[in-house]
Write a structure and sequence with these properties.
Radius of gyration: 24 Å
Largest sheet: 4 strands, antiparallel
Distance between the termini: 52 Å
Helix content: 55-70%
Shape: globular
Strand content: under 5%
Number of helices: 22
Number of domains: 1
Number of strands: 6
Length: 494
């Protein structure tokens, strides 16, 4: 017996979701969307379609406690759920044909990130052909000799800072093929490199401090300033990232001292071969041309980050940067057209399985949306927490958010769907609304292990099984869960 592959796991989940649409009542909240073209609000629901002027009075009448400026400035651009408008609708059960179509719909819907992954794969294929990457790894291994632990601290901290400030998540897909060979060359296993990148991003996003895609949208949707609760979020970020780094260091030191203790020990040779660790071509000659090639390669990531932060770039622009980078490296290395095309296509082909996993994961979300069960779950979740005592309420909401992220694996989507519904519950519980926002943030803890987000595609890139990762991560999950429940209890008690 073998643990199922990532594709099989997602197909099983999709089948269970399709079955649940036959068991859970369909329902929906009416939603409000801002139209910048004519400065109006569009209200849409099961039996309603109405256009109203975009004024604060309209928002107040709808019990949406969000400043009008948040809509007109573009801070809130998704449809917002309108409180107290939930109603059951005609059932939309998803049968076999809908289940069979969901991966195709998901692949089409996720085309932007899929093409980013494929183009990055092509770029890696060109880079490996030049031998520059292996030369750089050999050089870095000599520089870090005896201080390899700094690589863990630096990588995890840097990725986490990206996660907490601007939501560095999908972009990390590009880092695995680059950094994991460095960790392996430093004497660790692929799990250490994967953990530094994935957990750095996940913990940074979970403990966002100024991330516009989660904390600012959530605060706007809750009708408060994003600075409220800021100090508590900074403290939580520092606490959780220190715990995470110490956890990775403990495992990494054990692997370095005794390689057979690695969770991936039986896959050691196949993983090293996959990452090109056995490549023999002149790997120690770190000449000027290879330095220039690596400079272009790293420059692609610098441009991507600058573009996302300052130039409003997203997947199309990011993908274009990596395509241009691959072509530039081809010219610098003087690779002829036939070899360039072959290496690029092969590199992209190596990540085709990852592309399918991304598409099927997105298809699961589409099944839930088409089955109209997401709002039903949200409605009953809100009802279940109404009237609880402060400590019990906030921790129940924390656990509910951990569950909701399975069906809504998007921080911005979760914010605009749940904040107008959950934020008013803080008023009845005698809490500040920033507590709801912080709880929404910490509820992302479950995203570390949920297969409906970025986890399975990331594991697939690294050739790490889902079962191996669960074996690695469960102690850290228990520690972080305990820390967050304790912190939330203290916050409402002070």
């Amino acid at each position: 017996m073998k643990f199922p592959s990532a594709l099989t796991i997602l197909l099983i989940i999709a089948a269970l979701v399709a079955a649940s649409t036959w068991l859970i009542s369909a329902g929906s909240y009416s939603s409000l969307t801002y139209s910048a073209e004519d400065n109006t609000f569009i209200i849409s629901g099961e039996d309603i379609s109405e256009t109203l002027p975009a004024t604060q009075k309209v928002l107040d009448e709808l019990n949406i406690n969000i400043p009008l400026d948040n809509f007109t400035s573009g801070a809130i651009y998704r449809p917002v759920s309108i409180p107290d408008t939930y109603q059951e609708t005609e059932a939309q059960p998803q049968g076999f044909f809908a289940l069979a179509m969901s991966p195709i719909k998901g692949i089409i819907n996720a085309a932007d990130i899929i093409f980013l992954v494929l183009i990055i794969g092509g770029l890696i294929g060109i880079l490996n052909l030049t031998g520059a990457f292996n030369a750089g790894i050999a050089w870095l291994g000599n520089v870090l000799k005896g201080r390899e632990y700094l690589l863990i601290i630096f990588t995890t901290t840097l990725v986490a800072l990206g996660g907490t400030t601007f939501g560095f998540a999908e972009e990390t897909i590009a880092l695995y093929l680059i950094l994991i060979p460095v960790f392996i060359a430093a004497g660790y296993d692929a799990m250490v490199g994967f953990a530094c990148i994935f957990l750095g991003s996940a913990v940074g996003g979970m403990c966002s401090t100024i991330n516009p895609f989660s904390i600012i949208i959530a605060s706007d949707s809750a009708g408060i300033l994003w600075t409220e609760g800021f100090h508590a979020r900074v403290a939580m970020f520092l606490t959780c990232i220190v715990i995470t780094i110490l956890f990775i260091l403990r495992y990494a030191n054990k692997v370095k001292k005794e390689p057979s203790s690695s969770i991936l020990f039986d896959q050691k040779e196949s993983i090293e071969e996959y990452f090109g660790i056995y490549a023999k071509q002149d790997i120690h000659t770190f000449n000027l041309r290879r330095i220039l090639i690596l400079a272009v390669f790293m420059g692609c990531f610098v441009m991507m980050i600058i573009g996302v932060l300052m130039l409003d770039w997203w997947f199309i622009e990011m993908t274009t940067v990596f395509l241009v980078g691959a072509i530039a490296i081809g010219f610098i290395a003087q690779i002829n057209e036939a070899r360039f095309s072959e290496a690029f296509v092969k590199g992209a082909g190596d990540l085709l399985g990852v592309a399918f996993i991304i598409g099927i994961a997105r298809g699961v979300s589409i099944l839930m949306s088409d089955g109209m069960i997401s709002d039903t779950v949200l409605y009953y979740a809100a009802s279940a927490t109404d009237g609880m005592s402060e400590g019990f309420f906030i921790n129940s909401l924390f656990l509910l958010y951990n569950g909701l992220y399975f069906i809504i694996p998007s921080s911005s989507g979760m914010a605009v769907l749940t904040m107008p519904i959950f934020a008013p519950l803080a008023d009845t519980a005698g809490l500040g609304r920033e507590m709801i926002v912080n709880t929404y943030q910490y509820g992302q803890l479950s995203q570390i292990i949920y297969p409906t987000g970025l986890l399975l595609p990331s594991l697939a890139i690294c050739r790490i099984g889902y079962d191996r990762f669960l074996k690695f991560i469960w102690p850290l999950m228990l520690i972080l869960l305990s820390v967050m429940i304790t912190a939330l209890t203290l916050m409402v008690s002070i």
